[in-house]
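Sample A.
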Amino acid sequence: MRMRTLAAGLFLLGATAADAQTTPPAPGQTPTAPGPVTAESLDRGLVNIGLMAGHAYQCLPDAEKDAAHTRLLAFNSILIAEMGANAAFRFATSFGAGSSHDVDRSFCERSLADLRALLARHNLDR
């Protein structure tokens, strides 16, 4: 059951990020529903979540970074257990990419909210 929840969450995150990069529907149009969960959509979700987490990590005050690092390692352990080493590697490399670029402070509030929601969803916010 947890695997389905994790997979669905990654898919939705991937779909949400992809949708944010496209032009919104014109007034009066209804947005199209995302398609079925595929390996590609899960990979895209892992990449997006890793990039977001890396960006959010840079936005954290220094006093919170150690605790966040521990929680992100716990999330990576969940990925290994639920989805395998390839999924965990994809997340970890994306996190590295997200945390190695100059931080755009205008997106910090959203990135931090998304990171905190992710940690809470997987009971890692304690």
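Sample B.
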Amino acid sequence: MPVDVQKMREARAEKQKGADLWTPSVGDTIIYVCPPCREEDPLPFVEVKVHYGINPKGKSMSICLDVSTNTVLANSNLKAALVTKGKEKAIAGGCPVCEDLDKGVIKDDKRAKEMRAQSRYLWNLIAMRFRSSGSVPYQPLPEVDKIVPLMCGYRVWDKIIEQFESMGDLTDFEKAYCLKLNRKGTGMTTEWDVQPDIDSVREPLKLGKSTRAAIRTALAEGGPGDLYTIIAGMIRDRAGVIKIMSDAAMIEEEAAPDAVVDETAGAKSEMPQHADYKKACYGTDCAPADLECQKCEAKVDCAPLCGVEVPPDVAKPKPAGAKPGPKPKPSPTVVAKANGSGKKTESAPEPEAEEAATMATIEAGKCKLGDSYVLEDGTIAEYKGSAKGSHFFQDSEGKRTKLAATAAVGVIEGDDSEAEADEEPEAPAAKSKGLDDLEKALSAAKAKRVPAK
């Protein structure tokens, strides 16, 4: 008797109510990150381990059923959610995917790497404003008080964590900081970035009563923002996972959700979007001394996942008989920098830079988010914020530069950064216990995350 795939879809939809994950549109979306869905939780996200590609002919995803690997399975809130859904025995018996991988049943090395358990992170957000490109103004979104769950991979998670480390508790109802989630491209060309929302950095947001009430209702046990209920809805029992691993008829119905950011359209792995990120070795086998790794465009993102240093660049050999090119023009540097004697020297700017920059300089630590400055090498770059004592600038080609707080940068003529540098929101005199706990929990979460080997 043939399998009724439509019936399976309906049954799955019924079991997974509340797991309608949010998919950001191409462009910039201003988001508010909601607080934890339980009072006792120190973190505003829940980490879950998943397997991709478990069907040999499809793109199926399943939650890892190995409690030692997927520690959220031992969480009392998740267990209660499973009981509510009548799935209290779903996590019994162990994970058949992990067992096959450990026994070497999967002979295809590429598929085996894809099937290894990967971390995904569930957050609750409010999407507040949107613009399709930087050339158009933001428009408020119609359902501004609607809480939506986002499931992301390591890269987006790390960028959000970086903002918490830089600005403190973003979720504070009285003084909230929003983020700008940028999506470029679709499918295999998708790229993601997370930056502070300049407006809320200048003037932190105080959430209204209706928004606060909507958050509390959504995050309540069993609500649409209860992350444990969402995960419980995604869990299949051991028999269901085994059936997907062997039954080609389930391919279409069991495709992994498109709402997981950081994923390619095909492998659904934790990969940014160009050719080198499709390699099976991505995130598992980076070696700084390996020539292939040194040439790989994905090495900057791959190396941290493998727990190694980023491989050095390979020097490009000059063609035989090539004539030396013209000497570069003097750099349009307008930065006053200290020489060995402690005195400051200045190099003359190029003619085309004279009108754009002045001789005024400020310290990187006093720069204003979103404004442009002239770096020591003459590059004009936008100030993107700070993390762990370092300050980051990004030029028009996307290249990032990290500077110390005391490093000098040039002020663009007409830019009011220097005058307003001290007008940024003042930090509280003393951190609250809740903020201390949040920072400790975030640090612990990053420290314990060991990429799959």
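B remarks: The chain has three domains: 5-265, 275-306, 337-423. The chain has 14 helices and 17 strands.
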